[in-house]
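As noted in the main text, all predictions were made from sequence alone. Below is one such record, for FxsB family cyclophane-forming radical SAM/SPASM peptide maturase.
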Amino acid sequence: MSGPLVPFRQFVLKVHSRCDLACDHCYVYEHADQSWRGRPRAMSPETVSGSVLRIAEHVKQHGIERVHVVLHGGEPLLVGAARLGEIARELRGRLDGLCELDLRIHTNGVRLDERFCDVFAEHHVKVGISLDGDRAANDRHRRYADGRSSYDQVVRAVGLLRERPELYAGLLCTIDVANDPVAVYRGLAELQPPRVDFLLPHATWDNPPPRPSPTAYADWLIAIFDLWFDAGRTVDVRIFESIIRTSRGDPSLTESLGLQPSDLVVIETDGAYEQADSLKTAFAGAPETGLHVLTDTLDDVARHTGIAARQLGLDGLCDACRACPVVESCGGGLYAHRYRTGSGYANPSVFTADLLKLITHVRGRTTMPTHALPYSTVDALAAGYGGEDDVTRLAETQRSVRRALLAAVSAAGRSVPEAWDALVGLDADHPEAVEAVLAHPYVRVWAAECLRDGGDVDHLRNIAAAAAVRAGTDLTLDIAVRDGSAHLPSIGTIDGLSGRTARLVVEGGSFAVEGNEQGDWRPTWRLKAGDFSVALEDADPYRDRHQWAAAPRLGERDVAAWQEMFEQAWRMIDAEHAPYAPGLRAGLTTLTPLAPGPSGRDVSSTARHAFGAVAAALPADPATLALLVIHEFQHVKLGAVLDILDLYDESDNRLYYAPWRDDPRPLEGLLQGTYAHVAVTDFWRVRRQSAPGQGDTHFARWRAHTAEAIETLAASGAMTPLGDLFVAGMRRSVTPWLSEPVPPAAEVAAARSARDHHAKWIIRTGNR
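Prediction:
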């Protein structure tokens, strides 16, 4: 199986092939591949120039915006400061202006001095240093050939970098479980590195690592993780950050984790292209490609079978890995660590038990099975609020939820192959355009229905077409027509069509219906208030999945009325209910008009799968719209939280009293209502202050109801430990409000209303 060519964005130039230390765990000199013996000590000027030209050629051909180049060895400082300056100058001269160049050097540090630092400062070269922890840990392996310690020289080098922090890239530590993990971490952290890389020692199934216990490497890293996490993550530790990132659907920061394709190539001192250096641990010749910078392009290397095998993602893993619950983070582990004679790399990592335990532990500490959400965010949301960063994190978790649903639709055979292929291709080349369409709230609603009961699979055509329009690319595709209209999610609607499909031709962002019947195009309406804008969605065929009926298509006068009401309501939210405004800005994308409620009643709703959308009938005044938006967006936030966090025991099938409902509610319904009414209470608390004489009874009523419901949840015994924290957060917000004075008449009226409601509920349900 092969896919499109994946261009390289990371380049390792082996500028010197010898080393001044004799580290006994080095993969270059101490493992199966000994090809360094036959290579020149230093990369020649001709090879450097050829390498730089090939990188520049590759960048131009593929339109690459950013590349990483690492000067490596052996020990690259053996080349000397002057020559390193020439190499850096040539790289900058060819690539600056063509792309952003992240230029680094990785060294053992023993030769680093001011002269080298001056050269690196001149050419903007960041410096990473290998150090295995405190003195005892470092001296276990990193010594000179005569046995002398390298520790003092390396710490001196780190001191030079700390004085010039613009050069300091971080520290790399190879794990030895014989070392004290806490002492290692503290020894590294004391040097104030911008980043620490902990590397598992290179090993294979043929030559497994020393293992005093079945999960020794996980236990070693977990000891550091707990210390790091409890201290507030003050140092960037790449393996931990990568687990957290991949758990929420983001790319890994290291090739040893995650499913993204490898985009790294090594150029040896003799100009030979090689795969990742770590393969040297597998067998002699494992990294070789047979290709050379003076005769072969980087595209030739990208097509090499060994490179392609590391770009297949999930499809490139063995059956055991594909079935693993943490595969999206683990990614099968480092490619070299999977090797076994007879089956090659078609195996789990030799560290598979460690990776499973470590990833599970990290996810457990970060409270999420598949996404990372900081405790600070959970705490802010539990209180009923959540700022811009908090809601942005929630929105990010929705990205992978949506994509997982779409992938499941395709895997279930409920998609349209040509539309799916078009969408996959667009996602590879124009991911921002695809994401903008998938983020439209009712795309997820459609996907969920397809999985549940088959749904209208042809709607995928319209999703792909919308992405092509946003991307400004070319695509011809039959799109689905419903009731004479074809809706392109997040963009607009083509009206006046007949039949069940219409052929849409997209060229450079413009589009037209093929043939004589062009249709009438109407973009999605937008509401604006200052610099904030949301879609007014009156056309999406999946917008009618709310509790109340969707309004029919709007005319210009209707839209003008919505615009006036929204602008005034947002001004009120921004001024009087400011704690909610940042979260709304970050997460509210769509307002969906509903038909008027019974007898003119104000109605509003959210749909469980429509993250970002609030539906409401146009109310009589801006204050009511402000309340409805704040109230319903609480459901949006909590729905996203429940997508990724277990707050309650889903097997609990009891029904509970909700003071605002006539019917008994399941536990999730009570939780949702309680969370929404924290905001309702807060709204009336503030509203009665900004408009004296209004809202006292509402405030008195809702604070009592919400406090009662919070205690019902707390006493249910069905909340998870995280759910208990969430309930405690709501209580923390509401409790002070119970002491705020209200006029006695309002207090009496609220109490009478509560007693009457509960009494009627008991009569109606037979429950107490």
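The longest strand covers residues 100-107. Residues 442 and 543 are 6 Å apart (CA to CA). These features were considered when defining construct boundaries for the mutagenesis experiments described in Section 2.9.
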